[in-house]
Amino acid sequence: MHEWALAEAVIEATAAALGDRSPSCLRGVTVKLGELQAIDHEIFSFALDTLLQDRPFRAAVYRLEKEPASFRCGACAREWSLAETAGLGDETREAIHFLPEAAHAFVRCPSCGSPDYRVTAGRGVHIESLTLDAAGSCA
Amino acid sequence: MIDPRSSVVRRRLAGIGRIAAFCSAKGGVGKTLCTALAGLVLAGRGRSVGILDLDLQGSSTHLFLGVPPRLPREEKGILPLPVTARLGLMSAAVFAGNRALALRGPEVSDAILELLAVTQWGGKDFLLIDMPPGIGEEVMDLARLVPGMEAFVVSTPSMASTAVVERLLGFLVEMRLPVAGVIANMARADAAPVRELAARFTVPFAGEVAWEPDLERALGSPQLLAGSRAAASLAAALEEVGW
Questions:
Q1: Which of A9, A95, A106 sits opposite B117 (nearest CB)?
Q2: Residues 73-102, chain A: which have Cβ within 8 Å of B?
Q3: Which of A36, A44, B16, B29 stands 20 to 30 A from B42 (CA)?
Q4: Residue among A85, A67, A74, A42 at smallest CA distance from A123
Q5: What pLDDT sits at residue A103?
Q6: pLDDT, tens digit, for every residue of A20-73?
Q7: pLDDT band at residue B74, thresholds of 50, 70 and 90?
Q8: Measured between alpha carbons, how far is A87 from B1 in angstroms, rounded to an integer?
Q9: Are β-strands B16-23 and B124-130 bridged in parallel, bridged antiparallel, or unpaired?
């Protein structure tokens, strides 16, 4: 249930982003789940639903979207996907699940073997957008 | 795009009484030793203590405290690894083991934020943060994310250390980060340069951690470390500054 901590962060960030606006203005929240962190969709969704029950914006719909992970090598400029990263065992995947930067201890560029690369997409959890009621009263 | 993690950091740290980062602009002066000893000393007084090792690329607190890296237990987040009954540890080594963790600046910030957002410390009297050498992302990120954090600044009496640590003290003062105390490590009755450095910035000089040639034998054993002369001198230094 490590997902709970990140779901809680999403709820707190939603509240902060709403600021002084009426909670009823919030229609939906789009959350991206980075492939690298391998968040369990079902557990995360359950945590969000549970945490939302105590919030004034509980009617908002949270849409969870998977974001594919991609990497770019700083040495040879190769770009690759997580599917092209072979040989990660269960324990390694679990370590990356807890701390995505741990990938830098295990993943290497499939072309040149360099450890010098960036995760260009799909690292972890972020809020992509909030959808507010367009009818007004959201000042 | 909103990064939600910073929204929950204060909540994660809300149950902690005091937070201090053990820092130095110079490497190899004993930040990790002082952090580990402080954790053992405070826990030995019956207080509950957490240690967060943020020296991501050179994490070694687990080695000092004899904690083999293993994945943490989960409970609405991740739980620190137990060191003793009252002392818990979280470190990047838990995830990367003994492999090199080569990170660029933004990745360092990401890792720090992730650890702060997902580690469930629960109620603790103290959280001690072992910092990497330098004045980089770690110091600036913590100053922003952890309001109320204090700093213990560690230096050896050597000019090679004090001249560099002077820059850190200037930076901390500029950032308005409260300095709990300056600690002179590896002192052999010659701590005056560190004492003078603290006086120059009008911050407290906590005391000296005595040079102990046999300390290497205690590394990896919380019991031996807690019983060392170094631990006794650090305990006095903490008391000197009200810790």
A1: A9
A2: 91, 94-96, 98-102
A3: B29
A4: A67
A5: 97
A6: 889 989 999 999 999 999 999 999 999 999 999 999 999 999 999 999 999 999
A7: very high
A8: 32
A9: parallel
